[in-house]
Amino acid sequence: MNVQFSINWKNSWRTSTNESNYDGCWIFVKYRKQSTSVWLHATLHTSGQTAPSGSVVQPASDGKGAFVYRSANGYGDVNFNDAAVRWNYGADGVLDNENVEVVVYAVEMVYIPQSPFNLGNASAETNKFRDGNVNTWFPVTSENAINCGTAAGQLYAVGNFTNSGTIPAEYPKGYNAFWILKYEFSKQQYVDFLNTLDQTTANLRNDIGATGSVPNMEVTEPERAVNGLSVVSMLAWLDWAALRPMTEFEYEKACRGGNNTPSPLEFAWGNTTITTISDGQNVGTATETWTNGNANLLSGGPGVPMRCGALADATSDRTQSGGSFYGVMELSGNVGELCVYAGVPGRSFTGKHGDGKLNAVGESNETGWPSASNDYTMMVRGGSYQDASNVFLQVSNRGSFPVLSVAAYANHGGRGVRTAE
Q1: Can you tell me the distance from the alpha carbon of 292 to that of 306, in angstroms, rounded to the nearest whole number?
Q2: Domain extents for the chain?
Q3: Kind plus residue range of the DSSP H or E element containing 10
């Protein structure tokens, strides 16, 4: 069965020079049978999709969704009409004569190509990664296991790390290609998730003050980046969307890019130029912009998260927009990036993707993921709107401690990744 949709988004690109990457959208489908309130994740065929002119529709091999992106180099807004993916409804136990309702969800993402990159820095970032014997960055040249310690060629950090043992090959290093959310996911995207749950479970996962009842829960300022999440709730959204959390290594790769020499004390946009946002226009709406500044932090800032992508437009450069080397937004500031910790508690993570299903209390059910019973496996990178000092926004700063899984903190946002195929 074909599931047809049209999709458009702003400020799209594909380039084969410099960054050699592109943006796109992750598409996934939820369905429910007639006379039921239970929404389930649809399994897609891996072939037979319909790609409009100028686009690629690439289903994931596990059938959990598909990527849509430009088929050729270009810049600007895109609008792809009458695309389709094929639902393998028989695999989901749906009969030919059953009536179902389907909903197509989409999130903007950025493709991070395979390449070596440099982790950490030679400058004075707190608890930065470095070579064990020399105060310089650590080259990541494969997905092979990494030995940790104080010897040359080993990975080391002064604090917030376990300077012994091995980071297994299965822990995603950022060398292999992956897709990452272009923006932290928004309050609306989170409430969309809540509205597919039963009321009891939605109440358990409602860290954001959504009001009303399923399926019509709502939030104010829906375009803002979501904040106030617990690790458990953030991971539940990622599992529901068939994504996964990113690792500390992938965070730095997405910021800095491959084969680039780290700049001392750099932010995600590659330099130390930083001004707190001010003079907001249409704040809290879908057209929110800021006349001044390139980062949302506490000192002089609005005191709340800003709209996802509020600093980027068709003419802004990397520093003005706060964009990373690959075009990922708000990796420094706004809300904190929850990453899988590279210390011992997080090293069992294997990069397994979510399957679109949650357990009975609305938590992710993926083995090897951080969980309510597995604390201190994630830590905040990139700083947030609550940080008075901009040092926490530095790419290599690791000054925040690993966090409890069930505690909801105001600075916690959400962003996920998916290993590329």
Answers
A1: 13
A2: 2-111, 113-421
A3: strand 2-14
